[in-house]
Amino acid sequence: MDRGKAGSKMHVLSDGHGLPLVVGISAANTHDSLGLKPMVAGLQTRHDPDRGWHYKPRKLHADKAYDIPELRKWLRGKRIAVRIARKGIESSERLGRRRWVIERTMSWLTGYRRLNHRYERHPRNHLAFLGLAAALCCYSSASPHRTRS
User: Fold this and answer.
1) Domain count, the chain
2) Which long-range contacts (CB under 8 A, 24 or more apart) does 38-47 make?
3) What is the pLDDT of residues 73-103, one digit of tens each?
4) Which of 8, 24, 85, 120 meets the CB 3.0–4.6 Å disulfide criterion with 125?
5) pTM surpassing 0.85?
6) Domain boundaries, position 107
7) CA-based angle 83:86:88, to the nearest 5?
């Protein structure tokens, strides 16, 4: 976090395969951890009305920026298991097996020219293009004849 940094920051919540589930943006001078609660709260649970099942996220993997006791407590209250590297105790290398999934997702999203640099003046326009790119990523992974660009 840099208080004088201009621009915006993308926040992405993805599944285990890297498909973007929830996207968001914030100012570049805000801490990453402030974007976690709105992202998790924005994640809709899938509901199967025939069987009466609710599908909720079970586990969250995150890096050291999200190692805040309040966030851990909040996630435990939502019954979401947490795997966050602890500051000063664990190395970030231990998350390497899972981290590449979200890094790949971010690469898919920034592969769209409109998102690589922020051309839009208004944040709602940038968020709309980010949502569109996330939908295209999901579509291209579901379609067997299409490839990601």
Assistant:
1) 1
2) 39/11, 39/13, 40/13, 40/75, 40/78, 40/80, 43/13
3) 999 998 899 888 777 776 656 656 677 888 8
4) 120
5) no
6) 8-134
7) 160
Contact 134, 20 (CB under 8 A): yes
Q: How big is the CA angle at 17 (ends 12 and 22), to the nearest 5 degrees?
A: 25
pLDDT of residue 125: 86
Neighbour tally for 33: CB within 10 Å: 15
| CB count in 10 Å sphere of residue 115 | 20
What is the CATH classification number for the domain harbouring 73? 3.30.420.10
Residues 34-44 have pLDDT tens digits of 888 888 888 86
